[in-house]
């Protein structure tokens, strides 16, 4: 894979930022398709995962970074997310980071592969958050198609029995599902409604 995933990652973070800006305080305790997370915990995970990939991009040990951002006040999620996504842009600015070997939760990989995996994660959590909030914004289908391609490449069904993987086995996509619905179904997620 020789793609530069940075522009896609930037678009994914812009989309997440727009969604986070729509979150109302009364929605924070609401359910998400990630059954172990409410909206507040999902936001914490999105921001924490973003901080992790910023540390990886800077050449640090991403595995030492907790994939949750603690201590964020309910009215500060947009600001907190903007801060960590700015860190990502800075830490991945050097083209050499794309070919550098980095360690991420699923192993060691060249930076471009690792960042592509984080595009998949970001886009997946975008769907989770959008579902949780009642789909307040139109989502970028190209991002979902890219993420689905990555998911199919790195998560074949026969590897999903690993309890360390945060994705369940694929489920049937709802009839007429868009790219986000197909991605969610491939990763074992079901819509809330």
Protein traits:
193 residues, mainly alpha, Four Helix Bundle (Hemerythrin (Met), subunit A), two-stranded antiparallel ribbon, 6 helices
Secondary-structure topology with pairs:
Layout: H1 6-20, H2 39-57, H3 77-91, E1 101-104, E2 107-110, H4 111-132, H5 141-154, H6 179-186
Helix pairs in contact: 1-3, 1-4, 2-3, 2-4, 4-5, 4-6, 5-6
Pfam family, one: MDMPI_N
Protein name: TIGR03086 family protein
Domain Mycothiol-dependent maleylpyruvate isomerase metal-binding: 11-129
Q: How much of the polypeptide forms β-strand, as a percent range?
A: under 5%
- Per CATH, the superfamily is dinb family like domain
Radius of gyration: 16 Å
Strand order of the largest sheet: 1-2
Look at the structure and give the mean pLDDT.
92
Q: Main beta sheet: strand number and arrangement?
A: 2 strands, antiparallel
Task: Count structural domains.
Answer: 1
The general outline is globular
Number of strands: 2
Organism: Streptomyces mirabilis
Domain Mycothiol-dependent maleylpyruvate isomerase metal-binding: 11-129
Protein name: TIGR03086 family protein
InterPro entries: CHP03086 (IPR017520), DinB/YfiT-like (IPR034660), Maleyloyr_isom (IPR017517), MDMPI_metal-binding (IPR024344)
Question: What do these coordinates show?
Answer:
The chain is mostly helical and 193 residues long. The chain is 48% helix and 4% strand. The chain has a two-stranded antiparallel ribbon with strand order 1-2. The protein starts with 5 loop residues before the first helix and ends in a 7-residue tail after the last helix. GO terms for molecular function: metal ion binding. Residues 11-129 form the Mycothiol-dependent maleylpyruvate isomerase metal-binding domain. This is TIGR03086 family protein. Pfam families: MDMPI_N.
């Amino acid at each position: 894979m020789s793609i530069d995933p940075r522009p896609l990652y930037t678009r994914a973070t812009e989309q997440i930022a727009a969604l986070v800006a729509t979150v109302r305080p009364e929605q924070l305790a609401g359910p998400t398709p990630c059954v172990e997370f409410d909206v507040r915990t999902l936001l914490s995970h999105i921001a924490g995962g973003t901080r992790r990939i910023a540390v990886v991009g800077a050449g640090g040990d991403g595995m030492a970074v907790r994939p949750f951002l603690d201590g964020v006040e309910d009215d500060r999620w947009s600001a907190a997310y903007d801060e960590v996504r700015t860190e990502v842009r800075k830490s991945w600015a050097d083209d050499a980071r794309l070919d550098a070997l980095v360690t991420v939760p699923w192993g060691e990989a060249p930076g471009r592969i690792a960042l592509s995996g984080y595009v998949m994660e970001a886009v997946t959590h975008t769907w989770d958050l959008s579902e949780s909030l009642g789909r307040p914004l139109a989502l970028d289908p190209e991002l979902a198609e890219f993420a689905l391609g990555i998911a199919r490449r790195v998560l074949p069904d026969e590897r999903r029995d690993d309890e360390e993987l945060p994705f369940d086995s694929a489920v049937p996509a709802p009839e007429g599902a868009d790219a986000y619905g197909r991605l969610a179904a491939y990763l074992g997620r079901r819509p809330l409604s």
